[in-house]
Amino acid sequence: MTRLKALVLLSGGMDSVTLAYFASxxxxxxxxxxxxxxQRHKKELDFAREHAKRLGAEHRIIDLSHLxxxxxxxxxxxxxxxxxxxxxxxxxxxxxxxxxxxxxMLSIAYAAGISGGYxxxxxxxxxxxxxxxxxxxxxxxSALDTALEIGNAGxxxxxxxxxxxxxxxxxxxxxxxxxxxxVPLESTWSCYKxxxxxxxxxxxxxxxxxxxxxxxxxxxxxxECPLPQFIxxxxx
Amino acid sequence: MTRLKALVLLSGGMDSVTLAYFASxxxxxxxxxxxxxxQRHKKELDFAREHAKRLGAEHRIIDLSHLxxxxxxxxxxxxxxxxxxxxxxxxxxxxxxxxxxxxxMLSIAYAAGISGGYxxxxxxxxxxxxxxxxxxxxxxxSALDTALEIGNAGxxxxxxxxxxxxxxxxxxxxxxxxxxxxVPLESTWSCYKxxxxxxxxxxxxxxxxxxxxxxxxxxxxxxECPLPQFIxxxxx
Lengths: 236, 236
Prior knowledge:
Two copies of one chain form a homodimer. Helices cover 35% and strands 11% of the residues of chain A. Chain A is of the alpha/beta class. Chain A has a single domain (5-184), classed as Rossmann fold, CATH 3.40.50.620. The first copy, chain A, contains seven helices and five strands. The relative contact order of chain A is 0.17. Chain A has helices at 14-24, 44-55, 101-116, 138-151, 171-181, 203-215, 231-235; strands at residues 5-9, 28-36, 58-63, 120-122, 161-163. In chain A, strands 3-2-1-4-5 form a five-stranded parallel beta sheet, sandwiched between helices.
């Protein structure tokens, strides 16, 4: 049976990399799109490229870095705002919000999907993101999908849909999924600080360690400063 | 009274240029965004720059031209597809559809609006576009505005809205509006072919001549090959 064509938003982090392998089980993943929006952690893009290649998908980096000064207010794109340490689900993490990021990325992906005759645009938004990021919530994904369906009426013979299969999953469940699919999570990048190693203390490093620990998946990531509460499990 | 801050999607065509002047009556139009998506008629961008300057707004061109090959299928971005002649409201004009164009542009503008503390993003979609372009219809604008409101919940203290004041107006009504506002329409660009002069025969040149003729507004545009049915009125 011919599989339907899909494209994946692939940042190079553990969620979207897992998603790409997950989607490949049912779809013909032909295209992986990454975005350079001036983020500190551009390093993630190297991992995106690696996994797109493994999956046989074309990898494209959409360069929105010239918009950086228009997207001010986030620590991910501005050197003068510090990336906060701590747990993801905290008020301080609001400093990591890039306004309207998912709408921009999904709109561009959807355009490519309509042009290329694709049936699905996959995005790795998940339940752990909901507290801080409004554009990761199911209500948003659903509303945007509806809007784009209306906005492309008559030009969407493949019935292109935004697919967010992880939207109700925790990151620990994604880690379990990755493990069962054999995804090499050590070849993914989470840290918002984007230095040589994962820092271990920023919100997304915290979340990464916690998720792997909760899922009971060995964490092969090398952290600059790993969080002690997850270390014993990691060694086990 | 302090006026609220607004940004305008400004292509350099007669609709969006008129909109910019219209919006300036009530809002403090600080930013005008134009897009280079690989269109043949990049010439319009020069007119956008000129009017932004007149209105005292910062003008930014967002470069999406590197996406051009992902947005294939439109005569506006592909040299091997001919720009059709004829009336705008014809099936053949479907060749001028750039998939999901307004969602991409509005999502980026909305992001800039949230970051910059703006209250309104203005778009010049109008009733004459509805037949061909699904992303110019009021249902789409409304659905996208709802989606983006949900996607930025908690980060939108100014209550940013997408404003489409021309969405139910004909192009002739826009021409009348321009005339009453004193907008110099001869300094706007419509032609999809983007040569030295307006061709006079493509869909948008046809629509431009018809709109000015219907509105009884003198057409000072120089056309390569003006449509005879509108010539007598133009001379009058």
